[in-house]
Amino acid sequence: MTLRSYGVRVHSTPPFNAPAARRLREALGMAPGHVAYGLQAQYGLRVTADTVVAWERGLLAPDSRELTALAGVLWCSPGELLGTPQSLREHRMARAMGVDELARRVGMDPSSYRRMEDGNRWRGNGRQTAALAEALSLTPRELLTATGRDGELAELLRSAATTRWQAYVRPVARMLPLPGRQLEDALQRLHSDYHARMAATSSWGASAGSGESGKDFLDRIVEHFWALTPG
Which residues form a coiled coil (predicted)? Predict the structure, then answer.
């Protein structure tokens, strides 16, 4: 979402939690002016009290640097000022982790990681993907959303359900750091459940054959897979 702050267009990367910002400020007995002063005195940010109020009302949102500084002034973690993280950047900021630190933990050059984060497109290998999930404490589903690979997984799962599931164990494993046996069991059950339901009710089968807007069909396949994959 693109917003305006100080007359300049900025991109609000984190999903800012405006009510939380106000609640935390009030709990410290601070007025918006106190927050503005802290942002300037401690972090060199020229933020007015009116801007702080606008943040708390959801009219504006702080950019990444401002959010980190605001967390410092309010004596909280950046994650406490965020809604539900979606992107890699949002998950990283929620854990108050810098690009260099995360890149090191993932085993990647910082500039390469930053390009992926900026493009919201993860291209790490299987080992790096597993390290990323561990570093950011991501569930398999959060990992897929954060790395922008939901659509790719959906296509793989459709093929696994409708053709030979064994051929898709490795491709899916490269995207999801799941135990091998757990992944194999989930794909096998997905395949079995799909064909059993197709034979019994023709609901899934009719969808696949009649072109039930591929999206609805894929959504059902994906949701069933996650139901078979605890956590």
Answer: none
